[in-house]
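G., the chain you wanted modeled:
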Amino acid sequence: MMRGTGSAGSKRQQPSWTTTIYLRFRAAEFEILFFLFFLVAFLFLKDLISRPEYNQILVKKPQHDFWPF
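Predicted structure as tokens:
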């Protein structure tokens, strides 16, 4: 009789914890990247909007006319 050919009493080897983490990451890859995209966009826009120059764009009126007629 050959070893490991699948008798009724054979048991499967459990995957390592690194393999388990990798498989879970692969299953949730889209959701993780989606969340990271919005997190980076939020931090970038928060930094951009907090500058005083940005507020002046919304408040200050232009000094010259864009339409001369």
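The radius of gyration is 29 Å.

Shout if anything looks off.
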